[in-house]
């Protein structure tokens, strides 16, 4: 096994936060004089007491507390790996990257980086606002330890990627935030550092630029063997780009492992909706005197699937017990995206039970969803059993189970070769056909050809 290019051991960063507190109310001098008009001596005594009170109030204006931005963080990254870092705002992601980029020192712990580091943590990091775009390219390259010859060799490629040719000799303080970040990313990605660190700053760019950046990061890791640390709230970008992921929560490592698994766990955080849920005698499932739910599961390859490959068929299974006969019971499931949008509803229209009452017993209904139907993201499922004639809902179980649809870079999906974000709750891969219906003549013939509409 290759030696780790990034080693982090028991890393911690401590800050002391000051809080301003409300000053105690104190008596004004005029009130003291008015109240103590009995004599000069008493007034002087009151004035001295007021001064002491003011001094005491000033000393009590502030209080402080200890805050650990990150604590006891340990992990290793191998050369050529792309590691995503996920977590809520304030989880410690940016603090960790600043320590790895040597922008700030840790309070305790150890970091070992084997190679040159290029970081893009916020708009304008490492740029001098008074210098032009051209000058900043050479400045950044020098900071990374590149020679002028090496920078010149990559210069045209950097400018083409950043799309700032017209403004190359303009001071970067006049750049828009999008221009700034395009040039900064282009420099960081093209000057061949062994370790590339990219924060959520890519959100500043437009969709087309994000697509280019994701493609570039994938290229530098897979084809050039460089290591990338990638922080993003676009979880689906993390699952596509990264092999591993680090989940930070309140400054501590919650979990570190395969990106698909970590992202699924992170998206499901705070929810009990896992891929399998079973009720038993200690906690009877939802239902009424007619029917009761016992088990719900999402299966891929015969196993409960917290993570479902976008190309894999999915089986949504319900086990329910009919307690007494006489009702036509129709199970149905409602599938929701991670933003709460109803994707679609599936009903059990099995010809044998569509109009027939089920006798008492244990039943299993399986809905099969083929691959390449769902888009990427977290999906939760509500289970309902109803009777339609006359209409009656026997029970509803929201968030019965949940699973995450993930998309690897291998294999054909409806994404094709596009690397950007694709909106929508479904993304079916329908059959398509393309054929040439007429061959164009050679250019010489085409020039002499009389234009006419086909009959």
Question: How does this model look, in words?
Answer:
Helices cover 25% and strands 33% of the residues. The chain is α/β, with parallel strands linked by helices and 455 residues long. It folds into three domains: 22-60; 69-267, Rossmann fold; 276-406, abc- transporter (atp binding component) like domain (Coagulation Factor XIII, Chain A, domain 1), CATH 2.70.50.60. A hairpin with a 2-residue loop joins strand 8 and strand 9. The radius of gyration is 32 Å and the shape is globular. It starts with a strand and ends in an 8-residue tail after the last helix. The mean pLDDT is 82.
Q: Which short descriptors sum up this protein?
A:
single chain; 455 residues; alpha/beta; Rossmann fold; Coagulation Factor XIII, Chain A, domain 1; 3 domains; six-stranded mixed β-sheet; five-stranded antiparallel β-sheet; 10 helices; 19 strands; globular
